């Protein structure tokens, strides 16, 4: 199989067409952005960490029966994935109050939520990804009611699987963002699952092991990404 032309370059990844019409190659970059692109920088070896960490999570989810786009790792910073027609809805799952939810509801970061909270955002950089609900999704024709039911169930199940996996590694899964797409009539989980898209806190110290270290200039950014990979692999 051959890697053909670049189809798309996003803030953190590049997507390439391949000679197999059903597969894309995704390359993870070291570039980092925050606050809808207004803060720009680079995190050394982030592409490597996010590619490896995402692969571990996608393999786990495949084992647990969550259909997703991951096929195989092809390099330190690249993976082969199934082609997806991305649904422009970012799905956020929250277990603990942090980030934009802390601001919106006026509760301190770290407040435990009684049940996981599911939120939807319209994936549109020019609009700054505004929050929407399932009525907007249906009214704008972004996805059908049935697709949204599947997506919601999958997102909550992903949360259960990740929490179960991360708890023994002393990582609290505070919140995370998922993206979904259509592939041959099926809804698949796509994008990445990494410290760029999740909030991970050390259970004992509440130390942040994710992109908030970059967003908030907390230092030791690379070390945090490395620590997450290290815990997931047990140092192997
Ligand atoms: O900023 P906020 O608190 O709404 O983010 C919730 C979660 O979604 C965080 O884990 C964040 O990393 C992730 N997120 C993301 N991409 C966005 C917005 C949020 O990965 N565009």
TrEMBL record:
Q: What is the protein name for this chain?
A: Phosphoribosylaminoimidazole-succinocarboxamide synthase
Please report the organism this UniProt entry assigns to the protein. Thermanaerosceptrum fracticalcis
Q: Where is the SAICAR synthetase/ADE2 N-terminal domain?
A: 6-231
Q: Output the lineage of the source organism.
A: Bacteria, Bacillati, Bacillota, Clostridia, Eubacteriales
Task: Give the keywords, sorted.
Answer: ATP-binding, Ligase, Nucleotide-binding, Purine biosynthesis
Instruction: Name the Gene3D superfamilies for this protein.
Output: ATP-grasp fold, B domain, Phosphorylase Kinase, domain 1
The GO biological-process annotations, alphabetized, read as: 'de novo' IMP biosynthetic process; cobalamin biosynthetic process
The record's listing under InterPro entries reads: SAICAR_synt/ADE2_N, SAICAR_synt_PurC, SAICAR_synth, SAICAR_synthetase, SAICAR_synthetase_CS
Which pathway does it serve? Answer: Purine metabolism; IMP biosynthesis via de novo pathway; 5-amino-1-(5-phospho-D-ribosyl)imidazole-4-carboxamide from 5-amino-1-(5-phospho-D-ribosyl)imidazole-4-carboxylate: step 1/2
